[in-house]
Amino acid sequence: MEVRIRSSIAKKYLLLLWLFSGLFLGGGWVWTAAQDDSSRILVNVVLVQLNVAVTDHKGNYISGLRPEDFAITEDKIPQTLSTFEEGNGPTLRPETHGAGSIAQAALPSSSAATAETQLSQFAGANVFILFDTSNYMYRGFVFAQDAIADFIRSLEGVSKVAFYSYSRDLSRSAPLTADREAVLRGVRSSVAGDDAALYNCLLLTVKDTARLQGRKVIVVFSNGPDNASSVPPEDVAELAQSTGTIIYMISTSVAQNEPVSTAVFERMSKATGGKAYFAKSWRDEKQAFASIRDDLAHLYSLSYYPQPNPNRGWRTISIKLVGKDLQKYHVRTRDGYRLLQQAQISSGSYNTPEGGAGGTAQK
User: Is 61 among the domain residues?
Assistant: First the structure.
């Protein structure tokens, strides 16, 4: 968003820029100070969003938690919660104090209104399904299509769905849409074929999610290892973390027979706050999709404007539950992000996951 400030008060906002953004790109308020004859400053607001699962020792979801039950730190710096949402419930604005709220109060009313509009866009979720159509999928192809179709029909609290498929190249069979029938047609039109370049195609899918606000999810169905990618899986995982994208991996026993693929799938999903599933039958595939649907319905979505932080590289995020009675529960979310340049987010021109976006990006 762009705020026009007369030159007589420009110095005041430059001071706020220095105080609240850590000189430049240091905080969640990403300020771009471009002056037109000293008459205007461009202000860009970026939130860091976290999707958090809370479970007991048996894996049961814990519901009914409140904003004050969560304590967030970034590089050990305490953060102030800006929005809070449980499952598919409404997005709440907790009472905030400290630098984040001061910075927002300092913005002109038009800017505050735009920031409020951005927050409203966090409701719901955008789900990308990435289906393995390589030559690993000749066996059980139709069963997998059925499981994916049932998953699409069952999704609730999801704004839009996309269906992509991959072998050596990525096919965007059904771009992100609210039309479930269009997505189902994309599923039914997919055919099996070439070698598997999973990590190449997953990286492209993460890039597509990077421009979106709110909850972003990729569900990967893979029937085997990657045998054609030039991109290492570590790069994909880091970009997903830095753009706030959750990755769930569903694979069959074919991939599980290769320890390297098993370890990569588990590490990648865990790093982004998702899960990895290994299905031995088509019934297990359906159960894995049902588990993901259940997970999405129980996630807490938290967001914050980062406090001033001079760290321009990888930032470590920690979430703890407050109170002795809650500390026995397990918290699952991404463990950090790397700052991305705003120009990279807008254009989608990532060469590597270096230099990223503070969690959620805007077009």
Answer: yes
Q: Which of 138, 122, 98, 102 is nearest to 46 (CA)?
A: 122
The set of residues, in sequence order, having a beta carbon less than 8 Å from that of 33 and lying 6+ positions away, is 14, 17, 24, 41, 42
H/E segment holding residue 251: strand 245-252
Q: CB 213: neighbour CB atoms within 10 A?
A: 20
pLDDT for 324 beyond 90: no
Neighbours of 314 (CB within 10 A): 15
Helix or strand (DSSP H, E) at 4: strand 2-4
CB atoms within 10 A of CB 117: 10
Q: Tell me whether residue 356 is in a domain.
A: no
Angle of helix 259-272 relative to helix 233-242, nearest 10 degrees, comes to 10
20 with 143, same domain: the answer is no
* Stated length of the chain: 363
Closest CA to 243 of 204, 200, 202, 213: 213
Residue written as token pair 């002056």: 35
Co-location of 339 and 271 in the same domain: no
Instruction: Give the range of the structural domain holding residue 80, as residue numbers without chain letter.
Output: 2-87+89-122+300-347
Q: How many helices (H) and strands (E) does the chain have?
A: 11, 17
Q: Which pTM was predicted?
A: 0.76
Nearest alpha-carbon partner for 81 in 45, 117, 48, 114: 48
Using DSSP's 3-state secondary structure scheme, residue 27 falls into coil
pLDDT digits (tens, 9 = 90+) for 223-259: 878 889 999 999 999 999 999 999 999 987 666 677 7
pLDDT of 87 higher than 50: yes
Residues 173 and 224 occupy one common structural domain: yes
Claim to verify: residue 70 and residue 145 sit in the same structural domain? no
Q: Give me the mean pLDDT over the 99-125 stretch.
A: 43
Compute the distance between CA of residue 348 and CA of residue 250 in angstroms, rounded to an integer.
Answer: 27
In this structure, the answer to whether residues 224 and 331 fall within a common structural domain is no
Q: Please compute the mean of the pLDDT values over residues 299-312 and round it to a whole number.
A: 93
Distance CA 163, CA 84 (A): 29
Give the span between the Cα atoms of 345 and 360, in whole angstroms.
10
HSE-CB at 182 with a 13 A cutoff on CA atoms is 11
